[in-house]
Design goal:
The protein is an alpha+beta fold and 327 residues long. It is built from 7 helices and 18 strands. The structure holds 2-oxoglutaric acid and fe (ii) ion (FE2). 2-oxoglutaric acid (AKG) binds next to strand 7, strand 16 and strand 17.
Length: 327
């Protein structure tokens, strides 16, 4: 990675809720949070989230619908001024594989918005298939290339090895890190492509790479040989994890390094603040995280993560009982 930090992301991307919209969202989240059985992973609760999401503030609905149509050059949507009450939050969890099972008010906020964007899904072999996962630093995992770490997390497409990787990754900030500097790195192939020579792009478009499951997965086969770029040559999708993808020959290794540099050159840094929810388009953009110093004092950085698919039907063979969890 370069030593210079990428530019902070423009504050113009996305939507900041007005105070009236904040109140409307808080009321809706409170209504959802108290619905029995108050457990996120129960089907009836997520069904209610889908239904109630139709009452989110109209401007928020419009923003989400527009983002789904075209995620823009950064593949990023940032929603600001969402309800999170720090005085009601418990201590930041510190255990490995931490997930949120309880229908807390902020979990209801992220469930509503994620369900409006598409279908909230999870993976059986990762974080016990929970639909809302905690992104928190874990003692002893500092250097792990997973979201439990606190050293630099390499740029990656989420679950790049999986045939049904998420279409979007949602990161909802409950607490920032103590120094207020931990940054989510985001870089899109739309911005990087012009920096890549045509002959290198040709290599990236050919199946000369394999990708392993990330360390957060307990089981799973590596992806069969695949290209790193696919689809339209002028506006391709990207599929790479710089700590889990291996080039199969020297030319592929060189091309992958050019891609990495181009993505780093175009990367933006997003220091999420409490009440901000970022969606990353996992087909167009890679993400990572700068390093930070956890204290393990109950007030460390804490995000809720959700995964969203656009079309449940495509992954039906991977989901038992037509539920939300893929194998
Ligand atoms: O901590 C972050 O900002 C991102 C971590 C990450 O890559 C993830 O949770 O998928
Ligand atoms: Fe990630």
């Amino acid at each position: 990675m370069t030593t210079a930090l990428p530019a902070p992301i423009s504050t113009k991307i996305g939507l900041t809720l007005t105070d009236a919209e904040y109140e409307q969202t808080a009321r809706l989240a409170a209504e959802l949070a108290q619905l029995p059985p108050q457990l996120i992973d129960e089907r009836s609760w997520m069904d209610a989230a889908r239904r109630l999401a139709c009452r989110l503030p109209l401007r928020l609905q419009e923003e989400l619908r527009g983002y789904r149509h075209d995620p823009g050059s950064d593949g990023l949507l940032i929603l600001r001024n969402l309800p999170v009450d720090d005085t009601l939050l418990p201590r930041t969890p510190t255990v490995p594989e931490s997930v949120e099972r309880r229908a807390t008010a902020p979990a209801a906020v992220t469930a509503l918005i994620s369900q409006y964007l598409g279908e909230v899904v999870a993976y059986r072999e990762e974080k016990s298939g929970a639909l809302v996962q905690n992104v928190v630093p874990v003692p002893g995992r500092e250097t792990s290339q997973s979201n439990a770490g606190s050293t630099l997390l390499e740029l990656h497409v989420e679950n790049a090895f999986h045939p049904h990787r998420p279409d979007y990754v949602g990161l909802f900030c409950l607490r920032n890190d103590h120094s207020g500097t931990a940054g989510t790195l985001v870089s899109s192939i739309r911005n990087a492509l012009p920096l890549i020579p045509a002959d290198v792009a040709e290599v990236l478009l050919s199946p000369r790479f394999v990708t392993q499951p990330p360390p957060s997965f307990h089981a799973g086969d590596s992806a069969p040989r695949h290209p790193l770029l696919e689809g339209d040559r002028t506006d391709p999708d990207i599929r790479v994890d710089f700590s889990a993808t291996d080039p199969l020959d020297d030319g592929a290794a060189e091309a992958m390094e050019v891609l990495r540099r181009a993505l780093l050159d175009g990367a933006a840094m997003l220091v999420l603040q409490p009440g901000e929810l970022a969606f990353i388009d996992n087909r167009l953009s890679v993400h990572g995280r700068t390093s930070f110093e956890p204290r393990y004092d109950g007030h460390d950085r804490w995000l809720y993560r959700t995964f969203v698919h656009l079309d449940n039907r495509r992954s039906r063979a991977y989901r038992a009982d037509n539920g939300a969890v893929l194998h």
